[in-house]
Design goal:
alpha+beta, four-stranded antiparallel β-sheet, 11 strands
């Protein structure tokens, strides 16, 4: 789609908007408060995308309200998720791609979340290696991270990477975009928080934690490796006193940056395995990270012998989530399909689960598939 480009206040081209739309379309997602879907934009790109470019490039673009929905959490609570309109997701993608080109090369190699050529499996693999090298882990949980990011501190962090006026202008506007609640009322976001679900939110989170955590760790605790996937953080320590000192310093650091570590979910974990003495005083002996549970288990070596190690496998929460999804699908009632038809209908989901949760200790998935098999038998 080439509509030609005209001179504008900001150097944003129509090609950028079109390429961003293709990325948004590939990611999928539902409509926002305006009810316009991705298919609507695909059917009439000139009608919908030309105004996006026109306003972005002239400095007159203001984001519409973000639709808030509540996603159930495994602990019984809910997580607020913000759904921008499809056109706003396109606008966010334009700025996010431009900003990402400037900032990603400066990020820590221990930051894995929402980055090109980085993945959750890489973070899990590195954590597995470090758990064998270091006996202690700090499982970090930031209380309400996306809801509590301070706007002024975040803009200051973004300005460390870029002085482009249009990027700073639109980041400020997205941070203050109104939120539409379920009953239709709108609230204005003024001082803190960035909605989960926005295209640019993960990148802004990475920029913020780059200064708040990654750089701070490299300067103050360079001997303690870590893995960070967005706001999921695991830190490794040689002994318990070192781990407790680091955790105390970490709490103070986050308080300085107007964030708080969750007092119950942030914990010290002892990584017990062969060759390490048993620590009766160690209360926690396992932790969850990116859908996997790290704990002591039997591990087969390259030589074929079985030893007592510390490694990841699919977590109980993830197993429960797969079973729950199978229950919601209700495929045991799809009596109009034979086994071949069922396999075709379920293939993409099952392959997705296997590709993600089967990367490490695939045999631990037998419980999840036991539930699926029982529904097939029905």
């Amino acid at each position: 789609m080439n509509l030609g480009n005209e001179t504008r206040v900001f150097p944003i081209t129509k090609e950028q908007v079109w390429e961003s739309f293709k990325l948004v379309k590939a990611n999928g997602g539902s409509a926002g408060v305006d009810g316009i879907t991705i298919d609507d934009l695909a059917a009439h790109p000139r009608k919908h995308l030309y105004p996006v470019w026109n306003r972005l490039s002239s400095g007159s673009y203001f984001p519409p309200a973000v639709k808030r929905v509540e996603i159930p959490k495994s602990d019984g609570g809910v997580r607020p998720l913000g759904i921008p309109t499809v056109k706003d997701r396109v606008a966010q993608m334009v700025i996010a791609k431009e900003l990402e080109e400037q900032v990603d090369k400066h990020f820590s190699p221990n930051s894995f979340g929402y980055r090109p050529a980085k993945s959750a499996h890489q973070a899990i693999g590195q954590a597995r290696v470090n758990c064998w090298r270091y006996p202690w882990v700090i499982d970090v949980d930031i209380k309400g991270f996306f809801d509590n990011i301070d706007h002024d501190l975040l803009i200051h962090a973004v300005s460390k990477f870029t002085d482009r006026r249009h990027i700073l202008l639109y980041v400020k506007r997205w941070l203050k975009a109104p939120v539409q609640l379920k009953d239709g009322t709108q609230i204005q976001n003024m001082e803190k928080g960035t909605p989960q679900g926005g295209v640019i939110s993960p990148l802004l989170a990475n920029i913020f934690l780059h200064f708040v955590f990654d750089k701070w760790m490299e300067e103050k605790f360079s001997n303690n490796p870590f893995e960070r996937y967005a706001d999921d953080i695991i830190i490794h320590a040689k002994n318990e006193p070192e781990a407790r000192h680091l955790l105390k310093s970490l709490r103070e650091r986050f308080e300085q940056c107007k964030l708080e570590l969750h007092p119950e979910k942030t914990k010290l974990v002892y990584c017990n395995r062969k060759g390490r003495r048993k620590r009766k005083e160690a209360k926690e002996r396992q932790f969850d990270f990116l859908g996997y549970t790290f704990r002591s288990r039997s591990v087969k070596t390259k030589e074929g012998t079985i030893i007592f190690g510390f490694s990841p496998s699919i977590s109980r929460k993830s197993t429960k989530r797969i079973s729950e999804e199978g229950r919601k699908l209700g495929f045991h009632r799809w009596t109009h399909l034979d086994i071949v038809g069922l396999s075709k209908a379920l293939r993409s989901k099952i392959v997705g689960w296997l590709n993600y949760y089967g990367k490490f200790h695939k045999s631990a998935m037998k419980m999840a598939f036991r539930h699926l098999n029982s529904r097939l038998v029905k």
